[in-house]
């Protein structure tokens, strides 16, 4: 399968520093939707560059993989997590971009799916669920920060 990039974004009226701190917490944050299909376990017990995570899809026999924070740059508003194993090769990135009076949060998922069976499952089952899940996560973040 060729590389695929999915971009999703949301506008948030909050301070850049607050947005960044919540994005850094990502799957560990209190605002994380209970119905999210994703579960993250911080294996490093710290949060910053090189933090290691176990990511799990909360479905019976759902896939799991390890990720590491490769970039954590508050000044530029960028967090990049690379996939270390599992069905994906690539990264996910969260970027904060200034807008008039608010900020745009851009989620980028840039991956190559490993394995023929994983490619089929991704294409026909998980891809649409992933997009819907990220949309819900971004909405939950906005609701939390704008309350």
Structure description:
- There is one protein chain.
- It is globular, with a radius of gyration of 15 Å.
- Strand 4 and strand 5 form a beta hairpin.
- The chain is an alpha+beta fold and 147 residues long.
- Helix content is 27%, strand content 41%.
- It has a seven-stranded antiparallel sheet, with helices on one face.
- It contains two helices and seven strands.
- The mean pLDDT is 96.
- The termini are far apart.
What features would you highlight for this structure?
single chain; 2 helices; 7-stranded antiparallel β-sheet; about 150 residues
Sum this structure up briefly.
The protein has helices at residues 16-25, 116-145, and strands at 4-12, 38-42, 52-57, 64-73, 78-83, 88-99, 102-113. It is α+β, with helices and mostly antiparallel strands and 147 residues long.
Write the layout of secondary structure elements.
Elements: E1 4-12, H1 16-25, E2 38-42, E3 52-57, E4 64-73, E5 78-83, E6 88-99, E7 102-113, H2 116-145
Antiparallel strand pairs: 1-7, 2-3, 3-4, 4-5, 5-6, 6-7
Strand order of the largest sheet: 1-7-6-5-4-3-2
Radius of gyration: 15 Å
What's the order of the H and E elements?
A: EHEEEEEEH
Given the helix and strand composition, which structural class is it? alpha+beta
Helicity range:
25-40%
Quaternary state of the chains: single chain
Distance between the termini: 42 Å
- Major beta sheet summary: 7 strands, antiparallel
- The portion of residues forming beta strands comes to 35-45%
- Overall geometry: globular
Spans of at least 5 consecutive residues whose pLDDT stays below 50 are: none
Average pLDDT reading? 96
Beta strands, count: 7
Number of helices: 2
